């Protein structure tokens, strides 16, 4: 238990990024293309035609970016590994320079006393696997396991925290249900298959980890608690469906051994009846759950809305971020308590949390005043502290994001960074929120109170 006005002694303070969003140089040193490279180079998928060809040029600026983290007092860094840099075809021949790149990044982090957390899959599937059906192909789980094992063998002596997949819900919903992300499909038949294959892949990676790894591995999910807009039974049922779809769909099978009953209502005939054996194969114990939290959803029944017959309703009294997400720190405390109660208080890392707001231009004195992002950071950290006081086992916090980056379909138009990136000259400028976060880290959260 932590003393009332501080965080647990070993609480880990860090920030997060993902390969395709920051690295650039997607084809450097023998890497194979990813589905995001294909998707971003197909017209009208990404705002303003932006791509990850250069992004933050982090691939060529690794040392300077690690030095920046150190300057900001970061204790941990969550990054993702681009599968196609390691295995250009997704399986088969290994591209050694790709492994060397992440090896070097890990060494630089450790030299700076920064704990690495590596995510194996943050959406950049090798295009050659995309050509074989991507996550629709049942063999993808085995290929993911082979890739994961290769990376474990190279880095587990130094990487103590691993994540299998980032946000399977977003892969399924944005990638295969609504076509907003790569590969841009719109099919609930496909989405149902993809959900299951993603969980099979995560479980396969965890099984491999138990044979060759010695540290900790988890799965990262995005959680958005759903509240009914009224006590009307239709709204209550709509909120339940939305909750099953977004929050329970991935955690229930892994931690409780079954899919939520609502899956059948949502997907209809597209949802297969899984055998006990198939369900059992998903139930591979994790060392921690990674929780990404951004917002809540106040939910109303809505007949035409596909496939949930539910929609999120705007709250006139609330603040909204530039990605249209309601700011609600109380829901963060609620959802962490929900994880504690429903899943028997597993160890949790907050693997992402943050906000996009318009930032003013960099001022003469290199200051970037971002009061809304600072407010978001403070109130959400207090919400986590509250959850810890209420008994939740929260081990660390990774702010999304270390720096402004390619915000997927929004391109570079939305800025989540604690550090501002000038995309003309790649200059990094810590925003006032980064300086605030530094003070928070250095006081282990005491300055929040
Ligand atoms: C996460 N939603 O994406 C991702 O892990 C990051 O790569 C991304 O930059 C960040 O959040 C900010 O968007 C999400 O619709 C995308 O609920 C969509 C949702 C949640 C998270």
From TrEMBL:
Which parts of the sequence bind substrate? 21, 122, 166, 294, 400, 407-408
Report the GO terms under cellular component.
cytosol
Protein name (record): Beta-glucosidase
Q: What is its EC number?
A: 3.2.1.21
Highest taxon listed in the record's lineage: Bacteria
Q: Which family does it belong to?
A: Belongs to the glycosyl hydrolase 1 family.
The positions flagged as active site in the entry are 167, 352
Question: What keyword terms does UniProt attach to this protein?
Answer: Carbohydrate metabolism, Cellulose degradation, Glycosidase, Hydrolase, Polysaccharide degradation
Give me any GO biological process, just one. Answer: cellulose catabolic process
Name one matching Pfam family: Glyco_hydro_1
List the InterPro entries hit by this protein, alphabetically. Answer: GH, GH_1_N_CS, Glyco_hydro_1, Glyco_hydro_1_beta-glucosidase
- PROSITE patterns attached here? GLYCOSYL_HYDROL_F1_2
Give the PANTHER family listed for this entry. Answer: GLYCOSYL HYDROLASE, LP05116P
Give the catalytic activity: Hydrolysis of terminal, non-reducing beta-D-glucosyl residues with release of beta-D-glucose
SUPFAM superfamilies named among the record's database cross-references: (Trans)glycosidases
GO molecular function ontology, one term from the record: beta-glucosidase activity
């Amino acid at each position: 238990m932590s003393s009332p006005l501080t965080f647990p002694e070993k609480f880990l303070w860090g920030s997060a990024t993902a390969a395709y969003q920051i690295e650039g140089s997607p084809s450097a040193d023998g890497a194979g293309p990813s589905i995001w490279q294909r998707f971003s180079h197909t017209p009208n998928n990404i705002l303003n035609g932006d791509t990850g060809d250069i992004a933050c040029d982090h691939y060529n600026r690794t040392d300077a970016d690690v030095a920046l983290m150190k300057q900001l007092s970061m204790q941990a860094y969550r990054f993702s590994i681009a599968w196609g840099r390691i295995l250009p075809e997704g399986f088969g021949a290994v591209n050694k320079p790709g492994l060397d790149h992440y090896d070097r990044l890990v060494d630089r982090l450790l030299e700076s006393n920064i704990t690495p957390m590596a995510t194996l899959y943050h959406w950049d599937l090798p295009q050659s696997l995309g050509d074989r059906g991507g996550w629709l192909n049942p063999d993808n789980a085995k290929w993911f396991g082979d890739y994961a094992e290769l990376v474990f063998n190279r880095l587990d002596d130094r990487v103590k925290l691993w994540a299998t997949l980032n946000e399977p819900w977003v892969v399924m919903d944005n990638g295969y249900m609504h076509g907003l992300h790569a590969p841009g499909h719109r099919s609930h038949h496909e989405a149902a298959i993809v959900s299951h294959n993603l969980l099979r892949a995560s479980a396969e990676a965890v099984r491999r980890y138990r044979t060759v790894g010695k540290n900790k591995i988890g799965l990262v999910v995005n959680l958005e608690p759903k509240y009914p807009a009224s006590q009307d039974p239709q709204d209550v049922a709509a909120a339940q469906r939305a909750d099953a779809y977004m929050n329970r769909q991935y955690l229930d099978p892994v931690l409780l051994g079954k899919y939520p009953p609502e899956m059948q209502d949502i997907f209809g005939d597209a949802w297969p009846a899984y055998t006990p054996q198939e369900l059992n194969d998903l139930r591979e114990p994790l060392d921690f759950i990674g929780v990404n939290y951004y917002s809540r959803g106040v939910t109303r029944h809505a007949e035409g809305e596909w496939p949930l017959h539910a929609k999120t309703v705007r709250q006139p009294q609330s603040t909204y971020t530039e990605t249209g997400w309601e700011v609600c720190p109380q829901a963060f405390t609620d959802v962490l308590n929900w994880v504690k109660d429903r899943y028997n208080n597993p160890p949790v890392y907050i693997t992402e949390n943050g906000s996009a707001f318009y930032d003013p231009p960099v001022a003469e004195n290199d200051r970037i005043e971002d009061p809304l992002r600072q407010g978001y950071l403070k109130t959400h950290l207090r919400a986590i502290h509250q959850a810890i006081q209420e008994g939740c086992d929260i081990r660390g916090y990774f702010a999304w994001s270390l720096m402004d980056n390619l915000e997927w379909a929004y391109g570079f138009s939305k800025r989540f960074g604690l550090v501002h990136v000038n995309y003309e000259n790649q200059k990094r400028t810590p925003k006032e929120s980064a300086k605030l976060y530094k003070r928070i880290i250095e006081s282990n959260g005491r300055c929040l109170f």
